[in-house]
Amino acid sequence: METTMTGVQRRKKILEMLGQSSTPLSGGALGRAVGVSRQVVVQDIALLRTEGHPVLATARGYVLEVPHQTERLFKMCHTTEQTREELNTIVDLGGEVLDVMVNHRIYGKVSAPLNIRSRRDVEAFVENIRTGRSTPLLNVTSGYHFHHVAADQEEILDEIEAALREKGFLADFLSYEQEEVEK
């Protein structure tokens, strides 16, 4: 005789699976593992988030957010075609691109979470841009944009900064910008 998990047991199992996985888990895969539909998993994830669990949705599935030791804001400037190289430079050196942000003179600060941790995430992002009807935020500000980048050590962020500068992707902050975009 098969026993059915309660919602509490199911959510506990989902958290356990996410905590043990080194890769994102799709809603469908989580649903199959706990015997419910993907839609029920989506609801469970929402409940887990309201309880304060750091579950992130990525293009490849759900992950538990792993807190990093440190993060830094970088101001970037490049073309859409250079996006892959910029992102790969960051992840190859051990960084995670947390978000993208532009400071538009009319619309103000516009940002979106990215949570790009690997070359696979970079390829998924670039492919979504290529096949979608949208363009990267950097296009509304002539290539200028900001990224919060997280890493386990300041030294990693220093290496990332040096590599981005060497490739010509870093732009200098204007006197008011760093404080303005951090708000």
Structure description:
- The protein is of the alpha+beta class and 183 residues long.
- The chain folds into 2 domains: 7-64, Winged helix-like DNA-binding domain superfamily/Winged helix DNA-binding domain (Arc Repressor Mutant, subunit A), CATH 1.10.10; 70-182, Histidine-containing Protein, Chain: A (2-Layer Sandwich).
- 42% of the residues lie in helices and 23% in strands.
- It is built from 7 helices and 6 strands; from the N terminus they run αααβββαββαβαα.
- The chain has helices at 7-20, 27-34, 38-50, 83-92, 119-131, 154-166, 177-182; strands at 55-58, 61-64, 70-77, 96-104, 108-116, 144-151.
- Strands 3-6-4-5 form a 4-stranded antiparallel β-sheet. A two-stranded antiparallel ribbon has the order 1-2.
- α4 (83-92) packs antiparallel against α5 (119-131).
- The longest helix is centred in the N-terminal third of the chain and has 14 residues, at 7-20.
- The N and C termini lie far apart (56 Å).
- The mean pLDDT is 90.
* Relative helix content: 40-55%
- CA radius of gyration: 19 Å
Please tally the β strands and state the result.
6
Low-confidence segments, given as residue ranges, are none
Number of domains: 2
Please count the helical segments: 7
Roughly what is the average pLDDT, rounded to an integer? 90
The name of the CATH topology of the largest domain is Histidine-containing Protein, Chain: A
CATH level-two architecture of the largest domain: 2-Layer Sandwich
Instruction: Calculate the terminal CA-CA distance, rounded to whole Å.
Output: 56 Å
Order of strands in the sheet with most strands = 3-6-4-5
Tell me the strand percentage band. 15-25%
Outline: elongated
Give the CATH superfamily of the largest domain. 3H domain
**What is the CATH domain class of the largest domain?**
Alpha Beta
Outline the biggest β-sheet. 4 strands, antiparallel
SSE topology string: HHHEEEHEEHEHH
What class do helices, strands and sheet pairing give? alpha+beta
